[in-house]
Amino acid sequence: MDDTVQTDDVIIRVRGLVNAFGSHVVHKGLDLDVKRGEILGVVGGSGAGKSVLLRTIIGLNRQVAGQIEINDIDQNYMTADEAQLSRRHWGVLFQDGALFSALTVAQNVMAPMREHYNFSQNLLEDLASSKISMAGLPLDAANKFPADLSGGMRKRAALARSLALDPEILFLDEPTAGLDPIGAAAFDGLVKNLSKSLGLTVFLVTHDLDTLVRVCDRIAVLGDKKMLITAPLEEVQQYDHPWVQEYFGGPRARAAGIKE
Amino acid sequence: MAEAIHRNEFICVESGTPSSIVHFSGAWIIDNAAAIDADMSNTLLKAGDQVVIDCSGLEQLDTTGAVLIRRFASRFEDKGVALLTGVKAEHKHLLDVVAAKPAPVETEPETLPWYLIPVAEAGHGFMNATASITRLISFIGLVLIRLFGTLLAPGRIRFIPLVHQMDAVGVKAMGIVGLISFLIGAVMVNQGSIQLAKFGADVFVIDMLGIIHLREMGVLLTSIIIAGRSGSAFTAQIGSMKLHEEVDAMKTLGMNPIDVLVLPRLMALMITLPLLTFYADMMGIAGGIAMAWAQLDISPGNFLVYFRDVIEFEHFIVGIIKAPFFAAVISACGCYQGLRVASSADVLGARTTKSVVTSIFLVIVLDALFAIFFTSVGI
């Protein structure tokens, strides 16, 4: 009984979101619920406003209207302290990592911990190497600079940094973009395992059908400036909308193992 | 009943035989990690060699807490024997994720011991200086080849970028160049006349202004302003293109980066710097006229008549002829440093600094060489 309360608990609630840049309206009356502990995949055509939605939820982009609640705290009406505190509860993985290029991988992971807490150097190093190995990086990558790493390793290093503060919510922006299929599959597995073992809620913006099939619990489809449907894959496939039908019925979808 | 010999919010040590029991309790999460970690050495001291760790009292656990538990366990094991018990089912997988103690690793970039750093830096500095002089010379050679090639085939000149650069480095710089030259001209007359008045020779301030400003100050000031203003811009523009692999893309598309990026900037500066120098000369003299009128009561008309009598045309020529050379040095340095940017935003900053510093340095060195040359040929 306790369990159902847990899983139906809404961690991110978006209501009536309106985003516009000048006269170009990106979102109009968008509603979305993300449940605690689930992996939600957000899909939509290029320019549908997936990244804008993510940036709005994490507060990098100010909406024109609408309400965003994370952990029942309205993001519009927060004090600076509350905002700072709530930043600790989520981790963000940007599309190309956004690692600080002047710091080593380990220093990148330590940076948010140094900012928020007063840990001893020894503990910091221990925590950093734990996060690095959790993200599936070999430990000898710890003292390398981001520029010396391959694309896949940089993604993992960025994931390690986003896990630094033990977040409840992980925002991933196109996590598998630019990775080879093997690397992408490994990264998918990593995200799934971590979310399970750490009890993370994952908000995942992607184009990758494989990721949607393998990792996501529910899929939210963004189109016509709002959420068309938010449901498990099987239901989304049945949804009657030309873009959805084309997306989930195309040759690439069949290759990803989605049945008609 | 075993007696609690050490107790706080998170840790309670009970003595006992053969093993002492360490109870972990409360919220072992990142917010409490600093307090828990600070208590570690105390706990280690209180507990004996044989320890049973009891995790049944843990209310909350995150990965940081799991790392802390692992640290405690491994420190106990260094001393004697430790046994982990009472782990709740929901905490088990968390502990598993961070169970393996990672081997100690370097987290900082490798550094030398402090006493070797000056030696190593001197060595690196020397090697870098030789290498960069070689590279700069070969870069200048490359640019000259392309430049003469372009002069032979004028169709290759890219007029739109050329005009755009001339606007950016020349027209847009007129405000600051004019203002500074005007002020320096005025200051020179103001200070010069005070000193020369001691000899009753304050009217010679016009000779002084004419010679110094036309020969040296006008061109030097303009070059230094342009090095700071446009040399740095060249490095930053080309450098950020380099960072985004745009330069590589250009090469694969069969566009020569020297033709596309360097030559328009070089030519634009070589055309506009002499013009700007002429403008700076005029503004400096205007500043001098204004100050002479205000301070010495020399009317502009008298000033100009006297000026025409004492200042020879050669002085102007000596100044202006240096401008294209300085322009070449500034744009070559700026573009060269821009093309040398690689890998990170840090490098871009360092290269921009370097481009400004070296171009100002080279401009002044070149100016000194010109001074020696003109003196020896008697101009």
Oligomer: heterodimer
Low-confidence stretches of chain A: 1-7
Proportion of residues in extended strands of chain B: 5-15%
Number of helices, where a helix is a run of at least 4 consecutive DSSP H or I residues of chain A = 11
Biggest interface and residues each:
A-B, 37 and 32 residues
Q: What does the main sheet of chain A amount to? A: 6 strands, mixed
- The topology string of helices and strands of chain B comes to EEEHHEHEHHHHHHHHHH
Percentage of residues in helical conformation of chain A: 40-55%
| Rg estimate of chain B, integer Å | 36 Å
Per DSSP, the total helix count of chain B is: 13
Radius of gyration of chain A: 19 Å
- Termini Cα gap of chain A: 35 Å
Euclidean distance between termini CA atoms of chain B: 106 Å
Short description:
The complex is a heterodimer of chains A (260) and B (379). In chain A, 40% of the residues lie in helices and 25% in strands.
Question: Care to describe what's here?
Answer:
The complex is a heterodimer of chains A (260) and B (379). By secondary structure, chain A is α/β, with parallel strands linked by helices. Chain A has eleven helices and ten strands. Chain A has helices at 2-8, 50-57, 80-87, 105-116, 121-134, 151-162, 181-198, 209-215, 233-238, 242-249, 251-255, and strands at 10-21, 24-35, 39-44, 65-70, 73-74, 90-93, 169-173, 201-205, 218-223, 226-231. In chain A, the strands form two sheets. A six-stranded mixed β-sheet of chain A has the order 6-7-8-3-9-10, sandwiched between helices. A four-stranded antiparallel β-sheet of chain A has the order 2-1-4-5, with helices on one face. In chain A, helix 4 crosses helix 5 (121-134). The longest helix of chain A is centred in the last third of the chain and has 18 residues, at 181-198. With 379 residues, chain B is of the alpha/beta class. Helices cover 70% and strands 9% of the residues of chain B. Chain B is built from 13 helices and five strands. Chain B has helices spanning 33-38, 40-46, 63-79, 89-97, 117-152, 159-169, 174-197, 205-243, 246-252, 257-296, 300-310, 313-339, 345-377; strands spanning 4-7, 11-14, 20-28, 50-61, 81-85. A five-stranded mixed β-sheet of chain B has the order 1-2-3-4-5, with helices on one face. Chain B is elongated and about 110 Å long. The mean pLDDT of chain B is 87. At the A-B interface, helix 4, helix 5 and helix 7 of A face helix 1, helix 3 and helix 4 of B.
